[in-house]
User: Fold this.
Amino acid sequence: MGTLTSLIAGLASGETAAAIRRARVAAIVYLLAGTAALCGVGFLVGAAFIAASYRYGSMHAALGFGVGFLVLSGLVLLVYKLSAGSREAERSKRRKADMTAIVVTTALTLLPTLLRGKGGLGALLAPALAAAAYAIYKENTKPDGDSGSKKPE
Assistant:
């Protein structure tokens, strides 16, 4: 209950609005900086094209730049495809950690309520004992394909 109270107090005090305002200002600044950087890169590419066209001619410079940018796009897509597996593994790991945090938070939130009720301790101990008994059972039983005896060779 204390966590919920602190969240409501945070919303009421305006901390959330201030954080959103700071994030919006930062996004605008980064957008402007990114736009200026893209313009700079565009002018550098244009200057490189002009220099290449003086040296090799307009047609050869255009062909070279076209092929170069196609190769660059192919490399970007190749790297993206190769790293897709690691990104999915990271997402799965993060999802599992989030679910664990949600389960733990829910359990800790419900614990006082369960302990306060009539059958509270029983409601907590029964599933815990069942889970422990199942774990002991699984540990002491062998898988179906493993009989424990070796076949004669």
